[in-house]
Amino acid sequence: MTKEVSHSYYKELIDLQDVKEVEAQIQSLLDIPITSVTDLEKWLKEERKFMIKIEEAMTGHQVDFYRNTEDESIKTIYLHDQQVVQPLLMKYEAKLNEKLCESPYFHQLDETRYGLMRRVRESKIKLFREENIPLKVKEQELSTKYSEIMGGLTVEWEGEEKPFPFIQAQLDHLDRAVREKAYKKMGTAFRQIKPEMDALMDELIQLRHQIALNSGFENYRDYMFVAKNREYSVQDCYEFHENVEKHIIPAWNRLAAIFKSKLGVDTYRPWDNSAKLMKKPPYSEVSALMDGVTEMLGKTDPYFADRFNHMRENGLLDLGERKGKSPGGFCTFLPVSGDTFVFANFSPSFFSLIALIHEMGHAVNGYLEFSEHGPIERYQLRSEVAELYSHGMELLLLDKLDRFYPDEEDFKSAQREELRRAFTMLFGPLSGDLFQHWMYTNPNHTAKERDEKYYEISKRYGLNPVDTSGLEEEVGMSWAGTIHYFQYPFYNIEYSMSMLGALQLLENYRSNPERTVEAFKKGAGADYNQSIAAIYEETGVSFDFSEPAVKRMGEFLEKIIQDID
After folding, report:
1. Are 347 and 166 in contact (CB under 8 A)?
2. Which one, of 261, 355, 280, lies nearest residue 317 by Cα?
């Protein structure tokens, strides 16, 4: 019997502890006869209706765990999902895919509505190997271990034990001595957990390499390009790396000289690379953060503020820092409820403000998609599209940062910081992508070689203008603080691609704010069965990371930063 449980922010309409009942319901889907295209479309609706119940329950359990990694009962439920339910779903997903793809009516489905779904599910059949199921379960266990380690990481600061995000926030400080102290404290913390992180990453790389080999690929990089159904090639990525190194990094070096001058420092050290010129954090209490963001969203478009207030009133935001909470921030969708949930674990800082605005871009995208098309299916969620609206929201709110920085000089500094962040998003995630290309095409590398490669790539890109002498070890091991390498492999370059689109939105907004916001909403609610390029076009921008596009957007961004005086 299905158990219904009411939660404050998600609906549990299926009892995932009752594995036999879950399996019986999936089997009933497999037993449904299909004798026409109409039958097949009805079957797809029934399949989706059942799967979103599972999806919402598992998403809710995951959020519960991220909110409190130290609660054993929550962890037990989450691990049951990963170790018992997920393998069952993998096994039956393959059977459901076979039933669909082997139907004589499969290729009679409307191309406009079902074309993307057909391609995704055919690729799933191509990739599926039963021997990979236990490997993927183990992969999830290792990812969970990463959240536990980082969630429990604390640092001693002025006689008190502080959560790691508090120390990260000190890198914003105007006082250079405080920034340096925070940077070195972070290095000490990473050094303590480094053996565990190395062991986790070594095992993850070997697991993922074996998954790729089992599926007929030479390496995990090539496997992931198929798994992610990318609409561009490995070579396209390498050319993007080169275009950014050629056109963006020289501009970054020029801007670094300006930032160094404003900071009044002779040598640009790693703790200067993150320094903020604003006199104090933008807020002290989470309630003040939410009040201010509501106003900023409302001034941009009433719908944006309406969605934020809805989330605030319905327990769909968890923004405070605390021990035991998983690191980072994310927005996730609840397909039964038709809601989104935003999670963030950051100390009061400029970054925490921008992170919330960024995640609200995702949330608005989710609400518009749901209102236009119903629950978003996982295959439709391409990160090159999703990140366009999160980066885009940041830049649409650029002119409203005075809500948190009313002093004119602080306001200008805050705008520079957001635009500097845009610059870093053109090369930071891209360098992380290059790092992963290297890791997974050289799966037998050592931990020492991994640190050395990370340092080398960092110096080519973001740390190009920074003096890292004496800090090679700290820089080299800092990859351990990036959750994507552990839990979301090859989710990096999409940030850089989508930032090029978001900068086009900013360019449009400066000419015509109302038309740009309407285009943003139109694209955010567009039919996700289209190509990435078509969705970008509906948003009034181009999906283009060619050399001319990179050069033009780099020049545009550098100019508007220099124009803020």
Report:
1. yes
2. 355
How many other C-beta atoms can be found within 10 angstroms of the C-beta atom of residue 370?
19
Long-range contacts of 130-135 (CB under 8 A, 24+ apart): 130/91, 130/94, 131/214, 132/211, 132/214, 132/215, 133/87, 133/90, 133/91, 134/87, 135/207, 135/210, 135/211, 135/214
The per-residue pLDDT for range 59-100, each reduced to its tens digit, is 999 999 999 988 999 999 999 999 999 999 999 999 999 999
Contacts of 380 (CB under 8 A, 6+ apart): 116, 528, 529
Cβ atoms 524, 390 nearer than 8 A? no
Tell me: the pLDDT tens digits for 124-155? 999 999 999 999 999 999 998 998 898 888 89
CB proximity list for 101: less than 8 A, separation 6 or greater? 118, 121, 122, 125
In one letter, which amino acid is 557?
A: L
**564 domain-assigned:** no
pLDDT per position as a tens digit, 199-216:
999 999 999 999 999 999
8-state DSSP, 17: T
d(CA 118, CA 101): 8
User: Band of the pLDDT at 22, cuts 50, 70, 90?
Assistant: very high
Q: What is the DSSP letter of 340?
A: E
Identify whether the C-beta of residue 52 lies closer than 8 Å to the C-beta of residue 13.
no
Gap between the Cα atoms of 310 and 320, Å rounded? 18
Q: CA-to-CA distance for 156 and 140, rounded, in angstroms?
A: 31
Burial class (CB in 10 A: 0-12, 13-18, 19+), 446: exposed
Residue 121 contacts residue 101 (beta carbons within 8 Å): yes
Residue 96 belongs to a domain = yes
| C-beta of residue 564 within 8 angstroms of C-beta of residue 429 | no
- Evaluate whether residue 51 is within a structural domain: yes
On whether the CB atoms of residues 402 and 411 are closer than 8 A, the answer is yes
Within-domain flag for 253? no
State phi, psi for 334 to the nearest 5 degrees. Answer: -115, 95
Q: Pick from 182, 177, 181: which is nearest to 164 by CA?
A: 182
> In terms of Cα–Cα distance, which of 109, 404, 413 is closest to 259?
413
> Strands 317-318 and 339-345, how do they pair?
parallel
- Separation between Cα atoms, residue 493 and residue 498, nearest integer Å: 9
pLDDT band at residue 5 using 50, 70 and 90 as cut-offs = very low
Query: What DSSP line would sit under 279-325, residue for residue?
Result: SS-S-SSHHHHHHHHHHHHHHH-HHHHHHHHHHHHTT-EE----TTS
**Domain of 46?**
5-128
Nearest to 52 by CA among 442, 394, 339: 339
Instruction: Assign 372 to helix, strand or coil.
Output: helix
Q: Supply angle C-alpha 68, 70, 76, rounded to 5.
A: 90
Question: What's the pLDDT band for 4 if we cut at 50, 70, 90?
Answer: very low
- Looking at the structure of the chain, the number of domains it has is 1
Q: What is the mean pLDDT of the chain?
A: 93
Q: Residues 6 or more apart from 354 whose CB is under 8 A from it? A: 394, 418, 421
Confidence (pTM): 0.92
Q: How far apart are the first and last CA of the chain?
A: 66
